[in-house]
Amino acid sequence: MDGGVDAAITAYFGSQLQERVQQNIIREYLGEQPVGTAFVIETGNSKHPWLVPAPTMRVPLIIDGTDAVYNATRAALLAIFQHNKSAGEDRKITSVALPAMGAGCGQVPPGQRRPANCTDIAPPDIPSSHIAVFDAETQTWSLQEDHRGETV
After folding, report:
1. Region 79-87: what's the mean pLDDT?
2. Domain range holding 110?
3. Residue 152 placed within a domain
4. Is 128:5 a contact under the CB 8 Å cutoff?
5. Average pLDDT in the 69-85 region?
6. Structural domain includes residue 136
7. What is the C-alpha to C-alpha distance for residues 72 and 55, in angstroms, rounded to an integer?
8. Which end of the chain is more exposed for a tag (fewer CB within 10 A), N or C?
9. Which Pfam families match (predicted)?
10. CA 83 to mean position of chain CA atoms
11. 151 in a domain, yes or no?
12. Coil vs helix vs strand at 71
């Protein structure tokens, strides 16, 4: 978690969360989390209580033209679905913010960052300057400006 969106997450939540994510990856995936997997972990932050690590690539590389964003997005939504099945009402995830997955070193253009057939609910095309936010209660997506580097 030392580049791009991962670095911003670590900068915001702190190295303690990064260490817990890495320990979970060691425990559950023997040290390397495959593309197409995701899990829900508590952040310790009351404003943003959950994080869903869902990698789009094993190592930094161009993923334009692959199904990596589809697999990562689907894995994230499935992890949230599984979490919510057993969570109490006060611990359910009711909204999701997705970064422009694959937009950085992955060089995935906006038209390919829309995982159109991954579920009945798909985010809109995501420009590099925005994130797609899903509201579980209304079952709708909205685009919001991506304020990377700003305090959230």
Report:
1. 93
2. 4-145
3. no
4. no
5. 91
6. yes
7. 6
8. C
9. Macro
10. 15
11. no
12. helix
